[in-house]
Amino acid sequence: MADGDNEVDVLILGAGSGGYACALRAAQLGLSVALVEQSKLGGTCLHVGCIPTKALLHAAEIADATREAESFGVLAKYDGVDAAGVLAYADGVVSRLFKGLTGLVKSRGIRVVEGRGTLTGSHEVTVEGADGTVTLTGRNVVLATGSTPRLIPGIEIDGTRVLTSDDALRLDRVPRSAIVLGGGVIGCEFASVWRSFGTEVTIVEALPRLLPPEDAASSAALERAFRKRGITSRTGTSVTGVTTSDEDGGGVVVTLSDDTELRADVLLVAVGRGPRTEGLGYEEQGVTLDRGFVTVDDHCRTGVDGVWAVGDIVPGLQLAHRGFQQGIYVAEQIGGLDPRPIDERGIPRVTYSRPEVASVGLTEEQAKEQYGDDGVATLTYDLAGNGRSQILRTQGFVKLVREVDGPVVGVHLVGERVGELIGEAQLVYGWEAHPDDVAPLVHAHPTQHEALGEAFLALAGKPLHTHS
Ligand code: NAI
């Protein structure tokens, strides 16, 4: 669309994963699109989420590999971590992707309007930017304003000792010790990075296990692996007080629900992310919110005709790839296509810690709730039997959950690099494949994919490298 044209087919508020994917697909379908963004194209995922944290995790892997090099017969000396160097590396990755995305959006003829947008009419967004105010209208409006770190009343974030993940990403030093509040995805990933960089790490998690939504076996394996790496997990524990101290080098003192005290250089608060929906005019224009999240139907439609919502503001998994998919889904509906609804259970989940935890579909517990205790069969294949995993020296497993005489309904993976296996797992889940359907498929040797192949074989009743 031309810059002066303030009426479009699709007006999108927020250019994160959900918003920009919607914009790209809508433009591809020949619709005119405006994308409103107060910060940078790419949103949380690109700038303070998925991409920079995975860069940190890769640097962490290199630190570990260097430290352990000699045990592989390679002579290398680990001299520590240059935090500024790690940040520069992560920034380089982000800026290359940002440049690519900016070019892509431009090449599709999408108008990007910089500034803070507010819903001022049911189909109208007013944007206050550096160059003044502009009002845009859209035949369709897509709300995609994302999320921010959840805070805990009484715990004040100061950005240097008490941190959110945004601060932790920009930390210009490696802390000697860290307390991580929240054993969810962010907590486990940062715990993993910091430990690889030499930090003493304690995770405090209110629920009885790390990564509570994962299969219990995955949580137990991660906790065990973390323990071996020297990461302490205090599960079933919450924090009752936090004070910062200027004495002894200045750190944080955290009081726990069992009346013990922990001290560390920094405290990372990673207790979830809340939707960014306040003060944006949503409710005023008739959009229904529930505890801050936008209420939508299966088609991502809000209760207001022609107003849609995607990504982290919609209840469910707060994952970039879910946002992408919802954005595309909405664009295709607006474009008059009839896309397949998104199966939330089929959305793959990966925690990129060392070891990685990945899953798709139902946990064993959820499957038993759905099909009954006798209606579910599981199979666990230990990575000890997988050549590639032995080469990598990783421990872990593939766990399959199937409906008895029915398809595979859940796949759970623990081990280094197993996040890369989730693609195959999700196809099996998504196609509702029976173990017998996939057992004949040949897996390359030696790969970690073979572990999945072995598990399918075993579940189909013809185990190869397992004791039956
Ligand atoms: P989360 O919901 O994954 O985990 C938060 C954890 O904090 C939960 O286990 C919860 O029980 C615990 N908790 C809450 N209040 C607590 C308290 N007062 N004391 C102790 N523990 C408490 O949220 P997280 O890790 O902050 O991540 C936010 C979102 O970002 C998630 O939806 C996550 O999926 C997404 N994300 C995804 C990544 C990935 O896909 N690899 C990476 C990082 C974030």
Automatic annotation (TrEMBL):
Q: Which residues form the active site?
A: 445 (proton acceptor)
Similarity section: Belongs to the class-I pyridine nucleotide-disulfide oxidoreductase family.
Q: What is its EC number?
A: 1.8.1.4
Gene coding for it: lpdA
Question: Which Pfam families is this protein grouped with?
Answer: Pyr_redox_2, Pyr_redox_dim
In Swiss-Prot or TrEMBL terms, this protein is called: Dihydrolipoyl dehydrogenase
Q: What else is known?
A: The active site is a redox-active disulfide bond.
Per the record, the major location class is: cytoplasm
Q: Which residues does the UniProt record annotate as the domain Pyridine nucleotide-disulphide oxidoreductase dimerisation?
A: 347-455
Which co-factors does it depend on? FAD
Its taxonomic path starts at: Bacteria, Bacillati, Actinomycetota, Actinomycetes, Propionibacteriales
**What residues does FAD bind to?**
54, 117, 145-147, 312
**Localization terms from the record:** Cytoplasm
Q: Which InterPro entries match?
A: Class-I_Pyr_Nuc-Dis_Oxidored, FAD/NAD-bd_sf, FAD/NAD-binding_dom, FAD/NAD-linked_Rdtase_dimer_sf, Lipoamide_DH, Pyr_nuc-diS_OxRdtase, Pyr_nucl-diS_OxRdtase_dimer, Pyr_OxRdtase_I_AS
